[in-house]
User: What shape does this take?
Amino acid sequence: MMGGAWRRLKSDRYGMTGLFIVIVFSMVAVCVWSGLLGQGWSDVSGNRWESVSTTHWFGTNLLGQDILQRTLFGTATAFEVGLLVTFCSTLLGTVMGALAGWYSHGWLDEVILWLKGVLDSIPFYLFAAAVAFALQGIPWAMHLAMIITFWTTTARIIRGEVMRIKQREFIEAARAIGLPSIKIIFRHVLPNTFHVLLVQASIVFVAAINTEVILSFLGLGIQDGVSWGLMLAESSQEVLAGHFGNFVAAGTSLFVLLMGFNLLADALQDALDSRRATA
Amino acid sequence: MSCHALKVNDLSVWFETDSGRRQVVDHISFSINAGESTGLVGESGCGKTMTALAILGLLPTSGVGVSAASIEINGKDISSLNAAQRRAVLGRDIAMIFQQPGTALDPVFTIGHQISAVYRRHFGGSKKHLWQIMLDSLEAVGFSRAEKIASAYPHQLSGGMRQLAMIAMATVCNPVVIIADESTTALDNSTKSLILKQLERLQLQHKTAILLISHDLAMVRQSCRNVLVMYCGRLLERTDCQSLYSHAQHPYSAGLLSCIPQVSANRPPRISAIPGQVPSATDLPSGCHFAPRCIRVKPQCQQSVPHFDSEDDRAVACFRPLS
Amino acid sequence: MSTPTPPTKPPLLEVRNLSLSFHQQEQVAIDRVSFSITAGSTLGLVGASGAGKSSIARAIMRLIKPDSGEILFKGKNIFMMNSQQMMATRQRMQLVFQEPFTSLSPRRTIEQSLLEPLQHFAIGDTNSRQEKTRQIIQTVGLDHDVLRRYPHQLSSGQQQRIAIARALITSPDLLIADEAVASLDVSIQAQIIQLIQSLQEELGITLLFISHDLAVIRQIANDVAVMYQGQLLEQSPADTFFSKPNHPYSKTLLSFTNNKAPTSLPVENWRLDRGRTTAETTSNCVFARSCQVKMPICDQLEPASHQIQYRNQHPLGPHYVKCHLYEEVNTNDT
Amino acid sequence: MSVPYITSRLLYGIPLMLGVTFISFLLMVHFGPDKTYELIGKNPTEEQINEVRQSLGYDQPFLLRYGNYVKELLTLDLGLSDSSGEPVSSILIKTLPISLALVLPGFVLGNLLGMALGLLAAWYRGKWLDKLVMSASVVGMSVSFLVIIISLQILLCTPYGLNLFPVRGWQVHGLGSYFYYVTVPTLALVLVTLGYNTRFYRAIMADEIERDHIRTLRAYGAGPAELLFKHVLKNSLIPVLTRIMFSVPFVVVSGSLLLESYFGIPGIGLVTFNAITSGDQPILKAVVGLTGVLFVLALTINDMLYSVVDPRVSKS
Assistant: This one.
């Protein structure tokens, strides 16, 4: 089944382009983490607002820091935020969604739905501000805010899938031989939500990177280190004076990576579509 | 016999796929006279529904190919009409009843609104007039409290009632031809036979021609005069119902008949089955498509396609027909 | 012709006064249903959709909990069993569903699906389990190479054979088939009926065969039970039922099958494909509204289930009818 | 729409409102920063500290403080702003109209355009037009809000571009000046939402077009206009309504937050932004609590609209 999906993905030009982009960027991130790239992001290596040259490919910023180095380091930051938020919120969303769906219309489902409803009712940026307000000084406030709000969508999708799968006869067949619920969920229910999860995870990844930019601009984002969001926030002061280095470097990187993920998510959706897989 | 209610001439339907053409309807021709019912039988996946959708021109335009020499209703060719001209014919001269009564009607409009909209589209008229026409058609299919049904939404009716409402919608313009595609398959046996009775009664009244598509030979036997047997996109046998059941000529027809369990006071004989299964449209056997499952197969069957005489009243596409 | 079953033989499965309502939908699913199946015989449970047939199957498998009543398997009430006894009982009864495709777990190979019950009940070791799957695949008329495939790679007929194989792999005493041939094409349906018939002969399995189609029931069942709106209206040996049905509803069902349906009935009165809500009163006969031979008493009093006594005919088994018409005959006779 | 249905919907909203207010209370009041030391002088005595804590209500039990917070929200008696000393409620009343005037045009246009493009793409599903619209919307979805704002500013408001509109600010006196200041923010809002909206509406409409009852209508001679504008639109109203209701907080609140802080427009967004940066608790807790409550109210109304739109809803 997965083989067929991979075959369909491979024949999708846009999807493969997306995958290529994502792989290139994640390799940059890995290089930054292992100390091969972007280590000079905070060094003052030139004068303020130097223009493009062979030593500074994208010029320098206000403080004379190399914009290329900062962009490369920002890639790693983007992946840190993306991976952490995606992993935690997907895990939380899957557990909550599976519980709510399996015990649908029970008290547990009601409680989870209520919690989801409450979290969905507070506009996200305000919620992030509130979390940052409550956790003053803690650098993970932004990540926490994203995880707390992003799991609800995953949970809603998984709940719906589980409720749909629960109706299927193969679940009744498993219950008829007395298989305990937990085994049924892990063996027969969750594997059938895998394709939905994969697509949803790539959407969450995009949302996380996108949100980091806005939160950084609002002063609620990354506390130490540098990110594309911080660079864009910086650039908003500079563009009026005609310094486009930060804006072009961070804006383009952000666009290309998000585009790559969006293309990949679309292609995954098509390739893993169960209706096409059964046809 | 000069003018048939419905005359289909050399109709083909195929899917364009990555792996090439998938022929789902393969050059079929048939005709139905006014006031007669013809059954189109065969197992699922043999092209029955595709035939119906192609006649009405309802197949999607991308990825699907349709060709026909002509499709005539009362002698008028509808296969060459443009979209707007075709819309003027659909519902007025030819109507279709679908398989799933649960989803075939729009859930957010009342039954009455949907039926009168069909009539208004083709003939217009005042609101009062439309309402009366609609009530008449509901009463004609057997509803005694038509007004109540008219103001109901589809979800408020049972499956059988929805299908009856669908029949009212099909008959409101008094069409020349009605195509019923597995219209009773989703219903209980009891509801099924009541609905067939209503359809037969309306047919007698209005001299409508009916193409009854079904996999259920028992049902076709009850309500049709002629029968077409279809397999893998081709017609294998055409005959009147009586002769099909007394002596079917094609081995496939005979096989299908022997598959039907019978209700009888004495314990019936053991059922017999056709071995194997319908091949997929991507992997059709050469020659006669039925040859691999046929008990009377001979070498010739796998090499060439047996001729099917499209003009004759009785025809069979077989090199070794049963008597 | 089957030999008459001696009345002393204890039934494999006995259902007593089973009742069940779906409170959320306010539907009466099962209303005081009692019947029994002797070992080795086949009971055909017939009725329109929504009559409660599937609910009975699910209650027997303990997939849903009835409101009241008892289900006895080999004389033991399954609701009183501890988990160990229940585990042993579950191994002895199995279920086959209507939809072949959704019966099989889509992301597991056929072999994994077949091995699951064996592993769960800890039957045999790894080798003997694999041997068993090969055997059972042959029993249902398929080749070994389907074991490595996934459900969506098989045709619906093959899928249903696999579903039957999975049900048979623990060598159960009771097999419940819930509309197991209803969604299949005629030629595939005939093949599956043939398969079930040969399984009956070779394995002597006891079968509860649920269907809305009397013609299919005629092929397979020794006894017939008719359900209507949650109640059991008639139960009799198949040969008796098909030659001389007693309950007016049974007669209607048979006449529909032979297409001798009455057309005079206003269609709003067809309540044949609808269930009964909990709000509706049960102080009358449930079939009274659609009955063609209704008497005044039918609207006032619910008939009891009576056993029909035969004088001349050799009884093939007990024959129960829940209708006022036969109450009178019976009281006159005794 | 029946009375019990309305009541049940209203009752369903109550636990949600309690939850929303409770969470904002927890985050901003209970776990929020302790303001005692900002209000007192150097080397305070124990007594002074207690006095200030008492005046701030810190000595009261948890539930009572929560109760007071809910009461503040209900009576709109929200205290004074830390930074300006003005009553919070009058700040909100003053700035709300500006925010609405700023984001509503973009919100409405973004949805209308998205709907039109989605309908077009769904109707020509699989054709080149569909592919074009879908590719464009993926591009649109991949551009960050901030990048769009900065790009538009460069292109339209600076000498590096066309230099047609003001770089920032909001001096609105009439319709002319309104258009002068609102155009660039509106364009930004439309561009950032259009990709998502188009995809969403296309998915909904494409599903509806595939429905059996649409095939029935085709079989009975209904033309494309009748299919699309009568049946497809009416059947897709529920997801569309939900979408609009759910996107209100995102677009109106988040949109105004970002646009106003960027363009320096004195609406609620800017007030909130300043409150975030300066830690002005009375304003933040009022904004978060009120938007949450308003959102729950909107959802409740939304649920009620369902039963008007779809006859199946009030039954189940």
